[in-house]
Amino acid sequence: MKLLGRLTSINVRKVMWTVAQLGLSLDREDWGTGFRTTQDPAYLALNPNGLIPVLIDGDFVLWESNSICRYLANKLHATTLLPTEPQARARVEQWMDWQAGELNNSWRVAFMALVRGQPAAPESIAASVGSWNRYMAMLDAQLERTGACVTGDDFTLADVVLGLSTQRWKNAPIERVSLPAVDAWMSRLTTRPGFADYVDNGMA
């Protein structure tokens, strides 16, 4: 298997952290900003969105990072990371979809302006920071309820994708609300394989 995408991408690191949890070995090639362009016709033939990452498994090609994480867990029958019981699985996927949708949309303006340097009105940045903190408070409330991982006692793909998102929130140059359950959860995650390489590595 091969993964296409630069390691500075949070979505590539999401997949690589999943790979570390699975004890899987795969090749990775740098594509994207600073490397080979994803607008290359050969790349666009793999992913017409021109985004990273892309997984190549033989003649099977898959894009969208959360889908790649699910595929890898399914391929290796990692039923703790992605349960087979319908309700348990739905709960994990619910939080993965929330990460990709609501949470990501909340931080987009603030992060792109304050970290990536894209122009944005101050009021738009402030609104994005406020929204980002509100959604992170929702995660904090969930972790306070479980007292362990995002969906319960077991570490799942929900913890993978939200762990990366939380690290971005913690590293961003914004005023953050106090979230003790999130802090305790992140401290517990430090013992997971690959955390230092793909989460707490200083990358945004």
TrEMBL record:
Residues 1-80 form the GST N-terminal domain. Residues 85-204 form the GST C-terminal domain. Pfam families: GST_C, GST_N. It comes from the Bacteria. InterPro entries: Glutathione-S-Trfase_C-like, Glutathione-S-Trfase_C_sf, Glutathione_S-Trfase, Glutathione_S-Trfase_N, GST_C, Thioredoxin-like_sf. PANTHER family: DISULFIDE-BOND OXIDOREDUCTASE YFCG, GLUTATHIONE S-TRANSFERASE-RELATED. Belongs to the GST superfamily. This is Glutathione S-transferase family protein. It comes from Pelomonas cellulosilytica.
